[in-house]
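Service request form, structural biology core

Requester: graduate student, group of Dr. S.
Request type: structure prediction, single chain
Budget code: on file
Notes: please return the result as structure tokens.

Sequence provided:
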Amino acid sequence: MGSITLSKNGVLVKIQTHPFSMLVCRNNTPILRRLSSEFDIEYKGAFLDFKPLILKKSSDAIVLKHRDFELYLKLSIGDGMLKVEWDSKETLDSVTDVWAAVGDREWYGQGQLRFQVYPLSNHFTVMRPFLANNIQVPFWVNRNGGAILVDTYELFESYFGNSLVIRGLYTSSFSYHVIVGRDISDARKRFLKKVGLPERMPDKRILAKPVFSTWVEYKKDIDEGKILEFAKGIKEHDFPCSVVEIDDKWEKNYGDFTFDPERFPNPEGMVKSIHDMGYLVTLWVYPFINFESKNYAYAKAKGYLVLDPEKDEPAKVRWWNGEGGLLDISNPQARNWFNSLLESLKKLGIDGFKFDAGDGYFFPIVRTERGIKLGRTYGNLTPNKYTDEWLRFIAENQYNLAEARVGFLAQRYGVIAREGDKESTWGLDNGLRAAITQALTLSITGYPYIMPDMIGGNQYRFKCDKELFIRWVEATVLMPIVQYSITPWSFDQETVEISRNYTLLHLTLADYYVSLAQAAMRDGEPIICPLTLRYPQDDDCANIDDEYLVGNLLVAPVVERGREEREVYLPKGTWFDFWSGKEVKGPAEISVEAPLDRLPLYAEVHDSVLLSMIKRARKIFK
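Core staff response, request fulfilled:
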């Protein structure tokens, strides 16, 4: 058994050569351990452990070579990170590293899951290819301040249990970074410095007033009359609104990107009428062109579609609205053509777009005995690179009012991050509770401009009732961008008044949201802040999944059916109770009443700007 040490600027790495393992330390404090394994490499069907010989070494870097064949591992320390680079002269079936936190410390990160458990260390995930299905970020961080960032677009698998398993697939080169921070907050800042801070921020109007989507109210059964009726309902109820969003299905065929003339005989007039009511108008779009669309033959002939991995023809892609081709977003001519279709819609008065799909999940992949074959594109895209190129297209061409529900390492583009479709239920299985825990996860992984999908969920399998709707309003109305679709007046006047009051509270804080969005661009501060990021040394904050901070405003919604009280944890500080007007010293756990119309709220008194706004907003509820 041999032992080697690397160090630089407070990062210390202790390497054991047989069996191969690593201990990563901050100064002399262990934070992460790379576990030894029965097999580290799969090569030509054989499972092998890594048996290293030292080829080259300095104080902060080393090159190791497998004793029996030309497989190399380069480790180098720089900028508070350890870079891990596997390199082989031949393609490996896989190369695997397993990382565990030292001590029983919580893990956070990754992205949208079937059960959005928070923190992630309370959950097991399945070993599968890491593909951007909704927003998936290859970043995992623990409270020790250690983090793993797989900043590569090459294919890999991941699994999270008591440790994190990452496995490069069918590759001769696989690299990633181990981040060493002072705590979880510092590790996150180092991560954002590496991947990039948001370069832009959303339109101030949608930071102030909610978006109203047609989706849940009508699903695909929309036409000109129903859209105008929907907008008039908002106006008649004197409800704050920035955007009326026309969702699926406004075209005759998917991929036409022109209004169905039967359903929408006068789209320009319709848009003008909505503008006259004081609302902007956006339209749902996506990167697919179905076979029946008038645009399919043209896009195929021009080479604007992703090609099949094996055949010289466009890949056949099945998505939730049929089958067709996938736009090759890396082809400059295809991008220009697609953008011209969007610009033609804007000539009708459309102000912007809701961008759906773009998931790496839909990118063509074929497994063969010799490995994996990918769909062929102009820019040699991989599945996750497709996702980020989709976001880049949006940012460069149609940023204004744009929202997207996908992402990989696209934080720098600053596009509104919409959570995936929610079910109209209460739980972590994509219900109300998950809307909060998913927002906490998106914040940790560097997406600040969060839209938590539609209040009340999508009513796919279950219908939203009054109690669930009001609690959903309270849980999400203070997130950065708010979206309604089920209308409050679908229930009763009490629901309208409660919803309007909380929406007016958000509007009162509009300037505060702008300042938080600017801070996100400037230094990466989250708008929705998990308590553990703000108070990393407070053990009581580590597992709190039903409270969050908006700047210095603590939001503690009720997320269980039938509850009219809850326990609220207040971290260190002095907190102004929005309802009683009294100050409470933290840290403290308190029991508070929370009848159906009450959202427990607490402002940290040292934020004088927020405190002034909050005191003024109390008048809304009197």
